Amino acid sequence: MALLGNKKEKTYDTGDLKVPVSLGVIMDGNGRWATNRHLPRSAGHKVGAENLKELCRNCVRYGVKYLTVYAFSTENWARPQPEVDFLMKLFVELFDKYDEELAEEGIRVRFTGDDSELPKKVREVCKTAEERSKNRPNMQLIVALNYGGRREILNSCRQIAEKVKAGEIDPSDITEQMLSDNMYLPDVPDPELIIRPSGEMRLSNFLLWESAYSEFWVSDTLWPDFGYEHLTQAFRDFASRDRRFGGLSK
Ligand code: FPP
């Protein structure tokens, strides 16, 4: 089987671990990784992007079906313009450059977020990447781009409000399920596990609605150094979590 990246095939550890069907990853720490090496922050983003390929490859091998990664938040526009420009350029370059490898791995690419504010070129690349990968069977890679959890919830509320305004439904008909159905990608299951490298203990506006019962796993490792061992440890720890969903242990 073809591999993403140039790494040698490894033996995948399957004992005592639980692989989530739907996984979220906040790819944090690129800037610090670069600064620690006296490199520009952009170097960290480049290595971070390469590392996404490695994560995809490992997730496919483990059998994850939906991998949602936080690439650019609705708040990231506040970064210095050259950094924003660099990230946008990276997105444009990478989805073309990686497509062959993603295809070999059977990875379908989708995007979530508010695309109306993205540069035209980025929107075009996203559309092409979605279109050409839509029949790939192994895993969905969902890239959160100009994504904000609050904005997603707001957007869902607005869509429902339009139905109320049109007289199609009454406010008392609104259910949690209806809000879920009006999120950006309602067919994607809520993440069972969210991983955040780099030591920060917060969600940063990632999948706010969908993470109501997600398990969290954090590590001090910065995203560019996050590898197979960390992922495996996260899945091992996930196996021992007692997910009660507000109820009692079975
Ligand atoms: C957070 O690290 C990282 C980002 C805001 C960008 C994430 C983007 C990539 C890894 C590239 C992804 C590429 C594709 C193709 C989707 P940070 O800059 O906040 O790091 P810091 O907290 O150390 O400053």
Largest sheet: 6 strands, parallel
**Helix amount, in percent?**
40-55%
Low-confidence runs of at least 5 consecutive residues: 1-8
Q: Name the hetero compounds present.
A: farnesyl diphosphate
Mean pLDDT: 94
In what range is the share of β-strand residues? 5-15%
Order of strands across the widest beta sheet?
3-4-2-1-5-6
Number of strands: 6
Q: Count of helical segments?
A: 8
> What is the CA-based Rg, rounded?
19 Å
Spatial shape: globular
Along the chain, the helix and strand elements come as EHHEHHEHEHHEEH
Distance between the termini: 40 Å
Structural class estimated from helices and strands: alpha/beta
Describe, in plain words, how this protein is organized in 3D:
Strands 3-4-2-1-5-6 form a six-stranded parallel sheet, sandwiched between helices. It starts with 21 loop residues before the first strand and ends in an 11-residue tail after the last helix. The longest helix has 22 residues, at 41-62. It is built from eight helices and six strands. Helix content is 40%, strand content 14%. By secondary structure, it is of the alpha/beta class. Helix 1 (30-36) packs across helix 2 (41-62), helix 2 (41-62) packs parallel to helix 3 and helix 3 (81-97) packs parallel to helix 5 (120-133). The site of farnesyl diphosphate has 16 residues, from helix 1, helix 2 and helix 3.
